[in-house]
Amino acid sequence: DARVAASIDDTPSVLLVDDRPENLIALEAVLEPLHVRLRTAESGEEALKALLEEDFAVVLLDVQMPGMDGFETAKYIRGRERSRTTPIIFLTAVSTDVAQVAKGYEAGAVDYVLKPFEPNMLRSKVSVFCDLERQRRARARSDELLVLAWTSLPAGAAIVDVDGRMLQVNPALQRLTSGRAVPGSPISALVEPDDRLALDALV
């Protein structure tokens, strides 16, 4: 699906939500130089469907839409565990009063951009979130590799705290000790009594 495809090619996705097709075309033209995956939705309902199918680096969400408006859509986005922390930038050409802007931030917006927007400014804002998403994915890949190396290591290994107690043990160590290596127990319990003082000193 789209989520798997996005994770494979590592290109961040951006969701553009506006009920006017000409506004979506304009947004696509502004963001095209960022070389990110752009997906469009013409309603709040379409946006929520897209979020079920794909993860996004940022959502650009029009405030004034018929039916489910931007504020309601944002609340639904924030209400889902998977998209709870997805950044939302509100776009509006209507209200600039403090109460309306505050309502946007309360609904979960990280920014509020007034139409007509300055293309370079909007592109810069979106670029920041896309870069953060690339970094997040890189860290996730690194974590996955560390976990894989830890679990597949043929030698027994443990992470030990300053008191000599095991915080984590790998499968090989559990096998070698017939299950005696468990988090929370002292690593010195795994060796012969005559060796414990030397091991404690080493740790």
Verbal overview:
It is a single chain. β6 (158-160) and β7 form a beta hairpin. The strands form two sheets. This protein has a five-stranded parallel β-sheet, sandwiched between helices. Strands 6-7 form a two-stranded antiparallel ribbon. The protein is an alpha/beta fold and 203 residues long. It contains eight helices and seven strands.
Question: Main sheet: which strands, in order across?
Answer: 2-1-3-4-5
User: Helix proportion of residues, in percent?
Assistant: 40-55%
The biggest beta sheet is recorded as: 5 strands, parallel
Strand count: 7
Rg from Cα: 25 Å
Number of helices: 8
In percent, how much strand structure appears in the residues?
Answer: 15-25%
**Basic shape:** elongated
Written as H for each helix and E for each strand, in order along the chain, the element string is HEHEHEHEHEHEEHH
Category from helices, strands and their pairing: alpha/beta
Global mean pLDDT: 88
Distance between the termini: 48 Å
Low-confidence stretches: 4-8
List the helices and strands and how they pair.
Elements: H1 2-9, E1 13-17, H2 21-31, E2 37-41, H3 44-53, E3 58-62, H4 70-79, E4 88-92, H5 98-106, E5 111-114, H6 119-152, E6 158-160, E7 166-169, H7 171-176, H8 193-202
Parallel strand pairs: 1-2, 1-3, 3-4, 4-5
Antiparallel strand pairs: 6-7
Summary keywords:
two-stranded antiparallel ribbon, 203 residues, 48% helix, alpha/beta, elongated, 8 helices
Write a compact overview of the structure shown.
With 203 residues, the chain is of the alpha/beta class.
